[in-house]
Design brief:
Helix content is 42%, strand content 17%. It is of the alpha/beta class. The chain has two domains: 182 residues, Rossmann fold, CATH 3.40.50; 133 residues, Response regulator (Rossmann fold). The strands form four sheets. Strands 2-1-3-4-5-12-11 form a seven-stranded mixed β-sheet, sandwiched between helices. Strands 7-6-8-9 form a four-stranded parallel β-sheet, with helices on both faces. It has a two-stranded antiparallel ribbon with strand order 10-13.
Length: 370
Amino acid sequence: MKKLLSIVLVVCMVLALGAVAAYADEGDLVGISMPTKSLERWNRDGSYLKEQFEAAGYQVELTYSDNDAVQQNNDIANMIADGVKVLIIAAIDSDTLSSVLADAAEAGITVIAYDRLINNADIAYYVSFDNYTVGVLQAQYVIDALDLENAGDKTFNIEFTAGDPADTNAGYFFNGAKDTLQKYLDAGTLLVPSGKLTFEQVATPQWSTDTALENFQNTLASFYGDGTVLDVALCSNDSTAAGVAQAIVSDYAGENQPIVTGQDGDIGNLQNIVDGTQTMTVYKNVSDEAGVTLVLVDAILNGETPGAELCEKFDADAAFDTETYDNGLGVVPSYLLVPYSIDKDNLDLLVETGNYEWDADGVYLVSTLG
């Protein structure tokens, strides 16, 4: 990322020679459609994308659609009318954009699905993280923390909290975790007292913290009110983990602190990791995701047909995938970045990204964004 930013700064220094005017005259306007400002990570994504594209000389139209799929369709239609060359879209509902994106295709606009795959639409590329691996990392953390390989006759209780059914990533996260833990579930080493073992049973619409809180309070009341011990609350992301952690603090009668997983590195959740009410999060460096997207757009607008060779230009580890992500019209060529596990013992890894720093007391992490 530092290498990419240094290149960007060099580009900015050329502005006096008319670089920005050249982009503006050519109409290189990039449209960025984010789902909502209600989740911290989308604020970070939108800000990183806008910052990096503008630094490279592009004009940027950035919208947030308040988790309203109709509004997102309208926002995208407006950007098409404004003459964007490229649309970068993190979908609210992956199944509701096919019509407006048909209009984009007719207008010759390249569409990049950002972080979330868009179904049944003409998508040029998909930029995201290895979503299945996110769940694997959460599950592997549980395996290691409980030493399940050497559990013998010991048993542990686990409950799952998954994400938004409208988000194509949510199933990958859940399946990565559950598949990795399946042999321990089959062996009876891991037990699920609630019996909620399918994605549909534990899904959380819009990744809502309040919904996750209410659902987990009900689970605790129904299956743990008699003193049954909860060992693991496997949550697919940080917004749901925040609700689950709150439910455990307020409603769990056990004396132990269950393992609570998450994803994203939200500031409040990192504070919970320091305080011990959340155990880990899977971190996805969204500034790197924005950087990869910028390199991809540069290549497309230069008339290239990017493939695996583009990975050599990224300042982040990413793989080119042409097998995994079928959106209903075919497999979408994908650039997948690498996530990694964070707990209280390696929080300094986040500081090394440049996206976080320690607060004045050296206790909690704060965002360097803004």
